[in-house]
Amino acid sequence: MTILIPAYEPDKRLLELIVQLQEYQLGPIILVDDGSGPAYRGIFDMAEAFGCTALTHEANLGKGRALKTGFRYIQETGLSGYVVCADSDGQHLPHDIKRIVEVLQHQATPGIVLGSRRFSGTIPLRSRFGNSVTRAVFSLTTGTKIYDTQTGLRGFSFPMLDWLCQIPGERFEYEMNMLLTAHREGYTLTEEYIDTVYLEDNKSSHFRPLVDSFRIYLPILMFSTSSLLSALLDFTLLFLFQSLSHNLFLSVAAARLCSSIFNYSMNRKYVFTGGKASRLQESLPKYFALVTLVLLFNYGLLYFYNEKLIIPLVAAKLLTEVSIFLFSYWAQRRFVY
Question: What is the pLDDT of residues 46-92, one digit of tens each?
Fold first, then answer.
């Protein structure tokens, strides 16, 4: 078993964690200095004196890149067994790290074991709010409930390292992309509850609320943009075909077919790109099976709003698109790509 710790400008808490892990006989320990600079070289030199291996990025490249550097090193050096990733700021206690190892050892199928914080007691507002938002968004868009989507304490089996190195993302968004693509690759997500530790109101965290939150939510923002462009195309074609044919079902079907081809191309190329790229022959039939289902929903809702409730066609179309947006994202993420 190997413990991997990415670190950016760490303090003595990293050394304290290393000593405690060695008392538990957990290791070897791989550190990745993510561009901390000369001022922090002494911390890493001391860690190496304690028996750790320290890899160095000359510049700060982000947590995602640091984890990938560690994963590749573990592969190249022939280490085997399980890999547990932990943070360097003292938030993850040694006995909790050991528990992650124990859960990994009893897994029936390969998957990710998450050390999920309970968020009880006095928790910094930005941490409580951030986790609440990401938890809700993750649940809505994937259909999977994860209590702590932002935890840095995660365990993996050795055969997963190839996949982990292919996941896109260089900074904090990497960990969210990992969760978003796990289901498609056949990996389970298992939560093991751990103690919640925030020292000095979590001041040591290098998470940038605006920039890094944007990166985390980028896949959903990209999907929203793709859906908006497709909806505009769908709107235009619907009214064009309706004016020519005066047949609502034919107009809906023709507009949806054209916009779906556009939407499929955009989503496959720019949105659902994590992990192994979806092969055309695999994703295309699934996508257009979903299109057929959405088309029926689309026509049914549009007919109900426009014909039964006598809502103008423009307003009825808007209500219809909003109604099926989240369903479409969830279905594409879970079953298509």
Answer: 999 999 999 999 999 999 999 999 999 999 998 888 999 999 988 88
| Nearby residues of 94 by Cβ (< 8 Å), 6 or more positions away | 17, 20, 21, 23, 24, 26
Give the sheet arrangement for strand 111-117, strand by strand: 53-57, 29-34, 2-7, 82-85, 154-157, 111-117, 188-194
Report how far residue 112's alpha carbon sits from residue 104's, in angstroms, rounded to the nearest whole number.
8
Across the chain, the runs of DSSP E, i.e. the strands, are: 2-7, 29-34, 53-57, 82-85, 111-117, 154-157, 188-194
Mean pLDDT confidence for 196-220: 56
pTM: 0.65
CA separation for the pair 288, 279 (Å, rounded): 14
Which ranges in 205-270 belong to alpha helices (H)? 209-245, 248-266
Q: What is the pLDDT of residues 117-156, one digit of tens each?
A: 875 555 554 555 556 667 776 776 566 788 888 889 999 9
Check whether the bond before 285 is cis (ω within 30° of 0).
no
Tally DSSP H helices, then E strands, for the chain: 11, 7
- Mode of pairing for the β-strands spanning 154-157 and 82-85: antiparallel
CA 328, 321, 308, 240 torsion-angle sign? negative
Strands 111-117 and 82-85: unpaired
Token duo for residue 95: 């006995």
Lowest pLDDT segment from 159-163, 200-204, 220-224, 287-291: 200-204
Tokens of 231: 């909806």
